[in-house]
Write a structure and sequence with these properties.
Blueprint lengths: L9 H6 L7 E5 L3 H13 L4 E5 L2 H11 L3 E4 L9 H12 L3 E5 L4 H8 L6 E3 L4 H16 L1
Parallel strand pairs: 1-2, 1-3, 3-4, 4-5
Length: 143
């Protein structure tokens, strides 16, 4: 189970943005891409990352485990797309969501724009983009 972290002084939190103790949920329906993202997360210091493949699974995992952050693909298999799942996750559980998507068309961006409070990354992305977006989102959400 991933309980919400109770933070101590801001100084300790800022130093922990390197990844120690942060739990990240990756929502990606393409297994190879999910493994790649998880590998990058490990490499940049976010070793506590889990992967699910549908919007429905993401909501269940957040409800039962409360990660600190969700990396959400927009186009997912299943009844819910990433935007619908992200809205539910943020509004029901107050967990920040970063979108990661290959679809940068105007319609998708417009739909996601109202819910992308913590970040938006377009595939393919650089490791440094992922790291800085995660650190910014964690800082915005928890510090």
């Amino acid at each position: 189970m991933w309980p919400r972290t109770t933070f101590q002084p801001e100084k300790q939190v800022a130093s922990s943005l390197s990844g120690k103790g942060w739990k990240i949920l990756v929502v990606e329906d393409e297994a190879i891409i999910a493994m790649d993202i998880q590998s990058i997360l490990n490499k940049i210091g976010f070793a506590q990352a889990e992967v699910v493949h549908t919007g429905e699974e993401s909501i269940q995992k957040v409800a039962s485990g409360r990660p600190h952050l969700v990396l959400m693909d927009i186009k997912l298999k299943g009844k819910l797309d990433g935007i619908q799942a992200a809205q539910e996750i943020f509004h029901q559980y107050n967990v920040p969501v970063i979108y990661i998507t290959a679809f940068g068309d105007e319609g998708t961006l417009k739909r996601a724009n109202g819910t992308a409070r913590y970040g938006f990354i377009t595939k393919p992305f650089e490791e440094t983009d992922l790291q800085s977006t995660i650190q910014n989102a964690l800082h915005k959400a928890y510090i």
